Amino acid sequence: SEPGQFCNSGFGYGDFACEVSSSSAKLLIKGGTVVNAHHMEIADVYVEDGIIVAVSPNIKVGDDVTVLDASGKFVMPGGIDPHTHLAMEFMGTETIDDFFSGQAAALAGGTTMHIDFVIPVNGSLTAGLEAYEKKSGKSCMDYGFHMAITKWDEIVSQEMEIMVKEKGINSFKFFLAYKGSLMINDELLLQGLKKCKSLGALAMVHAENGDAVYEGQKRMKELGITGPEGHSLSRPPVLEGEATARAIRLAAFVNTPLYVVHVMSIDAMEEISKARKSGLKVIGEPVVSGLVLNESWLWDPDFITAAKYVMSPPIRAAGHDRALQAALSMGILQLVGTDHCAFNSTQKALGIDDFQKIPNGVNGIEERMHVLWDTMVESGQISVTDYVRLTSAECARIFNIYPRKGAIRAGSDADIIILNPNSSFEISAKSHHSKSDTNVYEGWRGKGKVEVTISGGRVVWQNDELKVVPGSGKYIEMPPFSYLFNGIEKADAKYLSSLKAPVKRLRTIT
Ligand code: URP
Ligand code: ZN
Ligand code: ZN
Ligand code: ZN
């Protein structure tokens, strides 16, 4: 295939064709089972100029329209990955997938939008956003931003307001771990929660007790444990449970919704379950690695094999994975991310003598849709409509971009996948589109294959070939005050009125 005009601007890598998409601006997807979070039906989907124009049976079109046959297949909203780290500077290196290779991988796996975390520069949100605007400048799919808060002062507080009111960011992540770098204390978390509440922005937490993790690391050093297994041993589930419980209680005290990222353990999940049962607005996001892998890999005698499974919070002992799957199917957890944060073998080898120096993170942006279909739908744990809710629709609702995203519906963006339930997939670093030389799902075979991905009305993945267009991806602004904020004011008013009658005391001394 001829390289297209957009392909010579520094994107010289990758084993896939990079060319200008030749597909027409008008598309008809014929005869598939159209799946939304609430409903599925056999229908045609007609797309014009990147927007879904009609969804109904037997749509008739002229011969200037590209027709895709989807009979016997599922036509679903493209996946939205709520949690990625593309081109992130972290632990002395930078994640191997930038916005181009990471997004190409995403599209090949049926994900058409991701939300990445802007990391402030020396605490400055403005400088952080500028850096990420550069990194994402040539995006080939739609994306949005969360932003981390790593210090607190009046400037940061004002910048948060600018991010929400002018820059399309409606969520902020607070790291309760990574002592000495990204970690913040409870005092800052409280200030952040209050500010988030006033702006209608969603507070997100990385929930591990960073001070205790530091103690755990010292303990490993004293025991002479320097290998990747030390990573898991130094930060056990109890530290994730503690931080999850603490963040939930502080959010409850402030009365603002909370989103717990990468829920990896039963301990954290149980805290979320308890909170939701008591009426608190808490969202739990498991990630694919935590749902389907277990920590046994960390004891692998080959360092690189073990090191590729190092992420935080750690992948847990067998049993946590199945419990998280059950929680997802029961509605205790609401959506699935990846925490795609890929490092290659050379980068992982930074920690060859000390597990604390192994860059934390695993891949997943390309694998999420397939692994989740295989694990949850093929096994009978969830329905196809649930699959759409967990991979796309609920994420769009939480970040307040539904139904522009997350739905197959007239007026929605034409981010669509065609999944063949009778076809199979196999995962390997040899064939994946990430720049990493390893894959934590190496050798995984399963049923259900994304055969076509449509991004912004363009066919970008078909016949196992990518045709991505750098620069075609749009930054999606996400407005504040999602549905999670409904009722917050009423609850506050009720609380205040309960305080109204001051206690009358007589000043008598006996
Ligand atoms: O190990 C991880 N999760 N790396 C990415 C940073 C984070 O904490 O999400
Ligand atoms: Zn419907
Ligand atoms: Zn995190
Ligand atoms: Zn992350």
From TrEMBL:
One of its GO terms (cellular component) is cytosol. Homotetramer. One of its GO terms (biological process) is pyrimidine nucleobase catabolic process. Its cofactor is Zn(2+). It comes from Rosa chinensis. Carbamylation allows a single lysine to coordinate two divalent metal cations. The keyword Metal-binding applies. It catalyses: 5,6-dihydrouracil + H2O = 3-(carbamoylamino)propanoate + H(+). This is dihydropyrimidinase. Belongs to the metallo-dependent hydrolases superfamily. Hydantoinase/dihydropyrimidinase family. Residues 74-460 form the Amidohydrolase-related domain. SUPFAM superfamilies: Composite domain of metallo-dependent hydrolases (SSF51338), Metallo-dependent hydrolases (SSF51556). The keyword Signal applies. Gene3D superfamilies: Metal-dependent hydrolases, Urease, subunit C, domain 1. It comes from the Eukaryota. Keywords: Hydrolase, Metal-binding, Signal, Zinc. The modification N6-carboxylysine is found at K173. Pfam families: Amidohydro_1. Its EC number is 3.5.2.2. GO terms for molecular function: dihydropyrimidinase activity; metal ion binding.
